[in-house]
Design a protein that fits this description.
The protein contains ten helices and twelve strands. With 272 residues, the protein is α/β, with parallel strands linked by helices. It has a single domain, classed as Aldolase class I (TIM Barrel), CATH 3.20.20. The strands form three sheets. The chain has an eight-stranded mixed β-sheet with strand order 1-2-5-6-7-8-9-10. Strands 3-4 form a two-stranded parallel sheet. Strands 11-12 form a two-stranded antiparallel sheet. α4 packs parallel to α5, α5 runs parallel beside α6 and α9 packs parallel to α10. The C terminus is likely disordered.
Length: 272
């Protein structure tokens, strides 16, 4: 798997973010492709992706290389994410659109999920992505509002909600999805409040997972959440009207993404 990725100069968030599920996913094989390089222009406290200034260069071969790799691996569902590229005029939106198109043109009957940054709330950038017709639009809220300054210092909770709301308004048929981490010091009431906010923003699906510290440079874990609390969050989300809630310690927004999709619809009785 790694040899295939390296031969085409491709990156995965699985590797860059040190995901705990990487062994399982790579053995299937499946991966979440990370476009626009492997250096992020933001300084989120939870993330192990390399941070720093980026050049303006964007790999023009990347969309087709991802499409060819997905075909070679026999993927039926492709997840495309990126580092945040605040240095680009469109935040990298056009590269998302080109990659979606390349994958769909190369592989018949494939579903495409994008996990995007906030594009600084830029409506035009968001429209560029959605005009390429991804099946699932994912933007992670990541944490509760009270922890944003510590966890996502260069992001804004209300702006992330607005991104999800705009996406759903621009494309009613797209599945709107978001995810958050727990164990960073939030309360149960705060998590439930976020679930309500996501529902009101038009979200169809939410993933909830335990924050695990990827390195000593990142934020410390404040609490390991019991399984029964994950179940409580799942049940609460469904009770308030979310179509799909996938909640568990090792859940990540793109973990088992293919299993989360059936006919481009989320189903709520998947195995955790």
């Amino acid at each position: 798997m790694k040899n295939i990725l390296r031969s085409r100069n491709l990156h995965t968030v699985c590797e860059s973010a040190r995901c705990p599920n990487i062994g399982e996913c790579f053995s299937k094989p499946t991966a979440t492709f990370m476009i626009l390089g492997d250096v992020c222009t933001r300084q989120c406290g939870f993330c192990s992706v390399e941070k720093g200034a980026m050049s303006l260069v964007v790999d023009s071969d990347e969309p087709q290389n991802i499409a060819l790799t997905a075909k070679e691996l026999g993927l039926r569902h492709v997840v495309i994410t990126s580092v945040t590229r605040d240095d680009l005029y469109d935040g990298g939106a056009m590269q998302f659109a080109l990659t979606i198109k390349a994958v769909k043109d190369t592989i018949q009957s494939i579903s495409v999920e994008v996990l995007t940054p906030d594009f600084k709330g830029d409506k035009k950038a968001l429209k560029t992505v959605l005009d390429a017709r991804p099946d699932i639009f994912n933007h992670n809220i990541e944490t509760v509002p009270s922890l944003y300054k510590k966890v996502r210092p260069q992001a804004d909770y209300k702006q992330s909600l607005k991104v999800l709301e705009m996406a759903k308004n621009m494309s009613h048929e797209v599945v709107a999805k978001s995810g958050l981490m727990v164990g960073l010091g939030e309360t149960k009431d705060e998590v439930k409040s976020v679930l309500n906010d996501l529902l009101n923003a038009g979200c169809d699906a939410v993933t909830i997972g335990q924050y695990l510290r990827p390195s000593t440079k990142n934020l410390e874990v404040q609490e390991y959440i019991p399984l029964e609390v994950f179940k409580e969050y799942e049940l609460y989300g469904k009770e308030i009207g979310l179509n799909y809630v996938y909640s568990g310690p090792f859940v990540r927004s793109s973990y088992n993404a293919e299993k989360q999709v059936m006919g481009n619809r989320f189903i709520g009785d998947m195995e955790n």
